[in-house]
Design goal:
With about 325 residues, the protein is mainly alpha-helical. The protein has 2 domains: about 15-110, GAF domain (Beta-Lactamase, 2-Layer Sandwich); about 140-315, Hypothetical protein af1432. The chain contains 12 helices and 3 strands; from the N terminus they run H-E-H-E-E-H-H-H-H-H-H-H-H-H-H. The chain has helices at about 15-25, 40-45, 80-140, 145-160, 165-175, 185-190, 195-205, 205-215, 225-230, 250-265, 275-285, 295-305; strands spanning about 30, 50-60, 65-70. It starts with 16 loop residues before the first helix and ends in a 12-residue tail after the last helix.
Amino acid sequence: MQMKKINWTNNFDRHEPTAAAMQLKQPSIIHDLNERFEDAWREEAIKRGFASAIAFPLMFQNDTFGVLEIFSQDKNAFIPEEVALLTEMAGDLSYGIHTLRARAEQRRTEYLLEQSHQELNTAYDATLEGWSHALELREKETAGHSQRVVSLTLALAEMSGVKSDEMVHVRRGALLHDIGKMGIPDSILLKPGPLSDDEWVVMRQHPLYAYDLLKNIPYLQPTLDIPYAHHERWDGSGYPRGLKGKDIPLPARVFAVVDVWDALTSDRPYRLAWPESETMAYIKAQSGKHFDPDIVDIFLNLISNLKTIPSGASRFG
């Protein structure tokens, strides 16, 4: 390898191999430190017992990011074969350092992206909980209903085979299950007694309102199964689409059981909460009609294995 001879009278910031290697972007050799004029760097090197030195620029894509400097106690220590070997080693070292730095930067970027993703999800969920709470404030008789059904729905969904990566959508769907009721007039939604046939026609529009509200929000599209389909029935007699059997999305089949359970075991202005035994008997009787029989079996087993806790609103809150 041809070396450019360094003239130590050149106007370098520091008269040492490091500065030369960085500025010239090639190896810099001093064969005999004693032949150089006096300066603090040379004096310090000689004081430490060194007689020669060589410096290699560490580079990536013609950008010098460091210097490998080697000293020897012998004069003329660096023969051409050694220089060639050390030059190759410096190239490998440059590549290795660049690779490590690139990986570290990639890990940092991935960490920041994950942190941003988590913060965004937290903000999303806080917004959904706010929507749910706003609806509950409007429907005074169902306060706490959404949070209760979320907890039980997640437990039942896991036991029913919903995949782990889909559980976040199940949770959000359960929170938003009645979001379509925002489009129902107060005179119908807050009516203390039974609804008339005409009023039921209006009330049964709320799954369609939920679909229209959520369908154009990308991160909420996977949550639509529950708000849109939780009033479908196993025998096809539900609404709004009259889906039947396993044409009803699994999350909606799971939620339908939990929704009825919570509604019947909670007090309403027009009736008191049903006893759990009576509610369990009703759900069992609706197996194969309103509800997926397999989901009913899993649900009844889940309820039977729960520890004894007061029924109603506090049980799953």
